[in-house]
Amino acid sequence: MAHALRLAARGLGTVWPNPAVGCVLVKDGLVVGRGWTQPGGRPHAEVRALQQAGAAASGATAHVTLEPCAHHGQTPPCAEALIAAGVARVVTALTDPDPRVSGKGHRMLRAAGIVVSEGVLTAEATQLNAGFLKRVIRGLPFVTLKLAATLDGRIATATGESRWITGPQSRRKVHALRLSHDAVMVGSGTALADDPDLTVRDLGAPWQPVRIVLDRALCHDPASRLGRTATASPVWLLHGPAAPDARRAAWSATGATLIEVAEAEGGLDLTAALSALAQRGITRILSEGGGTVAAGLLTAGLVDELALFTGAVLIGADGRPALGALGLAALAAASRPVLRETQVLGPDLYSLWSLD
Fold it and tell me: Which residues belong to the active site?
């Protein structure tokens, strides 16, 4: 199952709205087939593993990171494929919460006489597919908040200069994070200040994440890098009801997708915005916005993990803070993330934190 989970991780960022699943077929102590969900969500992991195994699948044990699907969608049910192949046993990590499956796959396998073992490496599988699970259960995507800050918690000087607080190793790590997420998201302030393209570079990536801008009034220029490349890789702009018609038309002409969401307290309603993205299939978002977006997401309880890149730089109190105001009156109300991982990246330190 651990091997199946490593295979499943290869699909992160490319299979949405489907889950990233891995499958390993074992017979007589040997791996006879393995597979993972392919870009676009199909073929499914079980189908790939069965194709590789061929006749050797008969009598084998299938280790699958998620309950095999039991419904007819764009492809036949994987549970049926396992049955037809003559698999003797199926071991799974998670029950699929999708109501079209949710236990039906396991029941279908047992009804066919296949031995089913559930709950193997469940915690690891839950973490791997946290985005898919959150979208299905709560109607929201999993959000990784990325911050690149100095040792004293600043993201730019008082004049706005921020290139580069962290070094090339950290920037390469950021591109790897983009590759494992369905979408990269920034606010209009970051888009206006940096004119980013938000693509994955220098990793030989065959796909690109959806590039999202939270832009209430559509202030960002359609002639920007995002506007000029909207037909090459997706650009989605989330805006408020009062966004000018002329700006909507200009952005639509670039090939970008416009999504209208409700406003709250002078800005976009972030919960409504993320819900709209989940409805369109997004399961994992890497937020690279500035301090205002970061604070808004944290205040709304929408951040699941924090990816912090700390550069060996000191700017001082006149620099721009990594986070906007959180409105905390007491330390007891402060969020206390749990450290999951640390890594030295040249002169920088990378740390990954889980939030409640």
Answer: 46
Structure confidence at residue 337 as a pLDDT band (50, 70, 90): very high
Distance from C-alpha of 323 to C-alpha of 292, rounded to nearest angstrom: 7
d(C-alpha 90, C-alpha 112), whole Å = 12
- Cα–Cα distance between 147 and 1 in angstroms, integer? 33
Query: Shortest CA distance to 256 belongs to which of 272, 269, 265, 243?
Result: 243
Burial class (CB in 10 A: 0-12, 13-18, 19+), 132: buried
Task: Please indicate, yes or no, whether the overall pTM of this predicted structure exceeds 0.90.
Answer: yes
Q: Distances in Å between the alpha carbon of 209 and those of 17, 36, 148, 182, 287?
A: 13, 19, 20, 5, 12
Q: Are strands 142-150 and 305-311 parallel, antiparallel or unpaired?
A: parallel
Residue 50 near residue 85, CB atoms below 8 Å: yes
DSSP conformation class of 256: -
- What distance in Å separates the CA atoms of residue 276 and residue 283, rounded to the nearest whole number? 11
